[in-house]
Design goal:
350 residues; BirA Bifunctional Protein, domain 2; 19% strand; binds phenylalanine
Length: 350
């Protein structure tokens, strides 16, 4: 009997010691397989008497059942452990947020352009767009900047195929050509009224868009934005320019705590001309003069190229830098960040 108990104990230990299902099946074969220890004991009964066979056989069976029970318990424990580790490996935290597709947003400069359009729109300005590939005529000549004018050298640009030598195509260096394009359309529409002496409705337009120059550093990018403004009527003066631009800046920066300075300057297409500087009276930029636009009274030659009589029609134009305005509004000090396309930077403006 002790021998059978020892056998059962040995089997239990072997089963416990089995690390994998394969080990367990090997251990099982040792004890209750075809040539296992139990089978051997059964065979060993052949020489016994009938009575002895009964008691011995019953005892061996009890031992065999104990071994089978231990085997099943171990199999179940292994399956359970396997299941647990699988559940752990495939653990799913249902409280984590799902993977959503990020919502897009507008580029900070686009946000500025939208603001500019809304503000000037509220002052009765139309919004016009024009081509980025311009002709020499619209970009320079019609703006009183003939071929050998020294001012052209400040507007070095990229020439593109498609024009002629006499009329080359180029990437526009400013949005000022839109003064001519828009005015010519406007004048065409109102030609009859103009010729009859009744006069035309005023031209009031802004023209935002991309412009290009051979220029690149922290405050200049070869591609940048401008927004042109033009107001032509019979009685539009520099005073109106001051009022409109001051109003615009205060609305744009949501502050009355800033002053404007019109600093005499030169542009071939305006006379007199002025750079517009602003100065914040408080905040991080307080005290510094910051240039935000070029401006002036539209030159008589330009008014003529619009198809109008400069003796009767007069007005002002300005060209401002939305990129610069965006930098000031958000406190960004490197213009190139706007055009690097880094989403971590750009998504901060949403
Ligand atoms: N086009 C000028 C520039 O790019 C700015 C300007 C526009 C000046 C309109 C006067 C009037 O520098």
């Amino acid at each position: 009997m002790d021998e059978l108990n020892a056998l059962v104990d040995g089997a239990k230990q072997a089963f416990e010691g089995a690390g994998t299902p394969a080990d367990l099946e090997n251990a099982k074969a040792l004890y209750i397989g075809k040539s296992g220890r139990i089978t051997e004991l059964m065979k060993g009964m052949a020489a016994l008497s009938v009575d002895e066979k009964k008691t011995r056989g019953a005892a061996i069976n009890v031992a065999k059942q104990a071994i089978e029970a231990a085997l099943n318990a171990r199999r179940q424990a292994m399956a359970e452990a396997e299941l647990q580790s699988q559940l752990k490996a495939e653990a799913l935290d249902v409280s984590l947020p799902g993977r959503r597709r990020g919502a897009g947003g507008l580029h900070p400069v686009s946000l500025t352009l939208e603001r500019i359009e809304a503000i000037f729109g509220s002052m009765g300005f139309d919004v016009a767009e024009g081509p980025e590939i311009e002709t020499d005529w619209f970009n320079f000549t019609a703006l009183n900047t003939p071929e050998d004018h020294p001012a052209r050298s400040m507007h070095d640009t990229f020439y593109v195929e498609g024009g002629t030598e006499a009329a080359p195509h180029l990437l526009r260096t400013h949005t000022s050509p839109m003064q001519i394009r828009y005015a010519v359309q406007h004048v065409k529409k109102h030609r009859a009224a103009i010729d009859s002496g009744a006069g035309m409705p005023e031209i009031r337009v802004i023209a935002p868009g991309r412009t290009y120059r051979v220029d690149s550093d922290a405050t200049h990018s070869p591609m940048f934005h401008q927004c042109e403004g033009l107001w032509i009527g019979e009685n539009v003066s520099f005073k109106d320019l001051k009022v409109v631009f001051t109003d615009f800046c205060r609305t744009f920066f949501e502050s009355h705590d800033l002053v404007l300075r019109f600093r005499p300057s030169f542009f071939p297409f305006t006379e007199p001309s002025a750079e517009v500087d602003i100065q914040f009276q408080s905040g991080p930029l307080a005290g510094r003069w910051l240039e935000v636009a070029g401006s002036g009274q539209v030159h008589p030659n330009v008014v003529r190229n619009m198809g109008l009589d400069p003796e009767r029609y007069i007005g002002f134009a300005f060209g401002m830098g939305p990129d610069r305005l965006t930098m000031l509004r958000y406190g960004v000090n490197d213009l190139r960040l706007f055009f690097d396309g880094d989403v971590r930077f750009l998504s901060q403006f949403q």
